[in-house]
Amino acid sequence: MNSFNDSEIRLSVPCSLLNPKSGSKVLRPPRSLHLNQGLKTLASWALGVTLAGVALNVPVALAQTEPVVGQWTTIDDKTHQPKSIIRIDLVDQKLQGTIVKIFTAPGERPDPVCEQCKDHRKDKPIIGMTIMTGLKKSSTTSWDGGEILDPNNGSIYKVKLSLTPDAKALDVRGYIGVPMLGRTQTWVRD
């Protein structure tokens, strides 16, 4: 039985190599990696910081805890066919949406740019473009206070999201002024 003091940690790594001359296996004794007190100190520090964060009620939430984080397929209002895939992420406690894929019709440009945009996104590729920003959680199933860009016409609208009870669809309401003066699209979970 190997013994070691509490200031070091040993990891055994088996090293089996093939002998190129004979084709037989050459077994070599395991090598030990010695990790000194520095690793223990770093681990203790990390544990201390984590516990302090919990004690001080610092948010340690993961993005996966938000039910809308992930990929959503947008549906064209006229054709009822998939139009794009949007990835929603939680960034600095706010939601943002980025276009990750576009379903183009035959004859359409496969890598469209936002020709109608009036801001820094003008003439930039639509794939990879962040079109939705600033949404804050207003209840367990809704988010608001953000903006959404329609890359087809370059218009920017206020936006509100509402998750359906089964969490398989997301009602996205773009509007000017008040939510009553807007339009709702339903996105489905990808």
Structural account:
Helix content is 10%, strand content 47%. It is mostly beta strands. The relative contact order is 0.11. The chain has an eight-stranded antiparallel barrel with strand order 3-4-5-6-7-8-9-10. It starts with 8 loop residues before the first strand and ends with a strand. It is built from one helix and ten strands; from the N terminus they run E-E-H-E-E-E-E-E-E-E-E. It has one helix spanning 37-55, and strands at 9-18, 25-35, 70-75, 82-91, 94-102, 130-139, 142-150, 155-163, 169-175, 182-189. A hairpin with a 2-residue loop joins strand 6 and strand 7 (142-150). The protein has two domains: 9-55, no CATH class; 63-189, Lipocalin (Beta Barrel), CATH 2.40.128.520. Residues 1-64 have low confidence and may be disordered.
Number of domains: 2
Uncertain residue segments? 1-64
Order of helices and strands: EEHEEEEEEEE
Binned strand content: over 45%
Strand order of the largest sheet: 3-4-5-6-7-8-9-10
Regarding CATH, which class of the largest domain? Mainly Beta
Computed CA radius of gyration, to the nearest angstrom: 26 Å
**From the helix content, strand content and strand pairing, which structural class follows?**
mainly beta
Overall morphology: globular
